[in-house]
């Protein structure tokens, strides 16, 4: 039996991998995609962590949680009354699973249409041209060959020695998306993007949530003013966020978790019904290559790449969460998938890593792109700031979502936009206009002179741009 040969083999079918495979096939390259993802039921699914146990899952549960919170609290102001509200978390999780399964099937449909061979297996690099296939259905292993290989195996949760997983009591962020009941008291280690998103979901569903963050400051990657606003809103919503809290031990006893942590005041203990470890993610580079393959990794398991996503092996590329080239974000990996596919097809392009949007899917959402004010201060940049609060927005008021603001930072002399920071409803959608503006080196005046529909949330960007020149149109006195 002859060895199958492809133009490109992609290992991994998360956003970076499946997009790389799709773009390769669109460019006429014979492509195979090898993926070993299984869901909590053991079924093979395309889409990786992002679709099956990450952002999409989290967003689906958050929407259910937001509806429940609205019905439980503020719905009467809309003139709607009812009795006997009940909560079925299992049904919420089932809806989430149906959503992720549908998206996974859509990827498979695209693969089939483009004649991409989908191989449900663990793929191991044997050389720069060979991949060992170990099928998930326990069929015999075999080897396939390719002129080019793209590594896109993604990342996995980082475990903590002080909080080792314990059945369903101490769990990671992926397992936290499949809980079938609301814990009375829930602990979360980590106040980063993942920790905050999970905290928001379970807080809305009625859990008492305590978030422990080892760092002394909150959301250090975000603009400090936005981070402070987010911290205030989180506290108003009932989240108990403890900064400078370093977990030192956990003990499971009598169906509960006893946790000890230290801060500047000393040692404290908590009794929890469940504990979620959301302390970040690490690359899925274990067992990626045979021992004799000289693929260069760093001490944390990230694959070394150059500006073209090329590894130390000729014809082998690495993209997405496997590398430190840009942030560990799905849309960054997606663009790298397109970039590498076009590199292979000799259609050269580039990625602007300085203008990649960041989004936190909390309620309200947080999004930003470009430089923060504290970073500009640190380098002595001469800048200006324009702010428009959502409570001055007619659309935000009609949505009963007045929390938040848009903040635009420009270079003082040229008016070129250096950064845009948003906290508030639909921030994840609003940030796209800011990214486009910055990609084309727009000035704040360009935004200010662009007609925005009224009343819309996009107007908040327009008003913030106007505010830079003290021309905001809908900003009441004293705001």
Automatic annotation (TrEMBL):
Positions that bind NAD(+): 190-197, 213, 280
Going by the entry's taxonomy, the superkingdom of the source organism is recorded as Bacteria
| Top EC group | oxidoreductase
Could you name the active-site residues? 454 (proton acceptor)
Put simply, this protein is called Dihydrolipoyl dehydrogenase
Q: Which reaction does it catalyse?
A: N(6)-[(R)-dihydrolipoyl]-L-lysyl-[protein] + NAD(+) = N(6)-[(R)-lipoyl]-L-lysyl-[protein] + NADH + H(+)
Protein family (similarity comment): Belongs to the class-I pyridine nucleotide-disulfide oxidoreductase family.
Going by the UniProt record, its keywords in alphabetical order are: Cytoplasm, FAD, Flavoprotein, NAD, Nucleotide-binding, Oxidoreductase, Redox-active center
Output the Gene Ontology cellular-component terms: cytoplasm
GO annotation, biological process = 2-oxoglutarate metabolic process
Q: Where in the cell is it found?
A: Cytoplasm
Cofactor(s) recorded for this entry are: FAD
Q: Which residues form the FAD/NAD(P)-binding domain?
A: 6-337
Gene Ontology molecular functions: dihydrolipoyl dehydrogenase (NADH) activity; flavin adenine dinucleotide binding
Instruction: State if Protein transport is listed as a keyword.
Output: no
As to how many cofactors bind and how, the note says:
Binds 1 FAD per subunit.
Positions the record marks as coiled coil are none
- For FAD, which residues are the binding ones? 123, 153-155, 321, 328-331
Major localization listed first in the record, in broad terms: cytoplasm
């Amino acid at each position: 039996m002859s060895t199958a040969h492809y133009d490109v083999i992609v290992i991994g079918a998360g956003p970076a991998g499946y997009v790389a495979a799709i773009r390769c096939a669109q460019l006429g390259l014979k492509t195979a995609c090898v993926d070993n993802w299984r869901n909590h039921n053991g079924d093979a699914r395309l889409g990786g962590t992002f679709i099956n146990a990450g952002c999409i899952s989290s967003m689906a549960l958050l929407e259910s949680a937001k509806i429940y919170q609205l019905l439980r609290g503020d719905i009467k102001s809309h003139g709607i009354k009812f009795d006997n509200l009940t909560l079925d978390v299992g049904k919420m999780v089932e809806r989430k699973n149906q959503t992720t399964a549908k998206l996974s099937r859509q990827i498979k449909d695209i693969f089939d249409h483009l004649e991409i061979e989908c191989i449900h297996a663990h793929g191991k690099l044997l050389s720069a041209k060979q991949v060992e296939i170990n099928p998930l259905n326990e069929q015999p292993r075999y080897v396939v060959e390719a002129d080019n290989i793209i590594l896109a195996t993604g990342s996995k949760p980082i475990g903590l020695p002080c909080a080792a997983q314990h059945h369903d009591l101490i769990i990671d962020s992926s397992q936290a998306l499949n809980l079938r009941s609301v814990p009375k008291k829930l602990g979360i280690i980590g106040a980063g993007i993942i920790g905050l998103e999970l905290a928001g979901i379970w807080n809305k569903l009625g859990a008492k949530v305590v978030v422990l963050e080892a760092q002394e400051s909150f959301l250090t990657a975000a603009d400090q003013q936005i981070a402070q606003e987010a911290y205030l809103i989180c506290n108003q919503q009932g989240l108990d966020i403890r900064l400078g809290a370093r977990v030192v031990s956990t003990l499971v006893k009598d169906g509960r978790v006893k946790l000890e942590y230290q801060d500047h005041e000393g040692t404290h203990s908590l009794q929890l019904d469940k504990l979620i470890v959301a302390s970040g993610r690490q690359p899925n580079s274990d067992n990626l290559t045979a021992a004799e393959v000289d693929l260069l990794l760093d001490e944390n398991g990230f694959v070394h790449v150059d500006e073209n996503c090329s590894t130390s092996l000729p014809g082998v590329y690495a993209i997405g969460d496997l590398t430190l080239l840009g942030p560990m974000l799905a849309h960054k990996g997606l663009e790298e998938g397109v970039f590498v596919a076009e590199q292979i097809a000799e259609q050269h392009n580039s990625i602007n890593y300085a203008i990649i949007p960041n989004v936190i899917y909390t309620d309200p959402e947080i999004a930003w792109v470009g430089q923060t004010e504290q970073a500009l201060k640190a380098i002595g940049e001469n800048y200006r700031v324009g702010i428009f609060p959502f409570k001055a927005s007619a659309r935000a008021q009609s949505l009963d979502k007045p929390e938040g603001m848009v903040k635009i930072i420009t270079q003082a002399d040229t008016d070129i936009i250096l950064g845009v920071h948003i906290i508030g409803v639909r921030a994840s959608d609003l940030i796209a206009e800011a990214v486009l503006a910055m990609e084309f080196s727009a000035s704040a005046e360009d935004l200010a002179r662009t007609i925005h529909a009224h009343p819309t949330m996009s107007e908040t960007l327009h008003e913030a741009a106007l505010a830079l020149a003290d021309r905001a149109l809908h900003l009441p006195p004293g705001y």
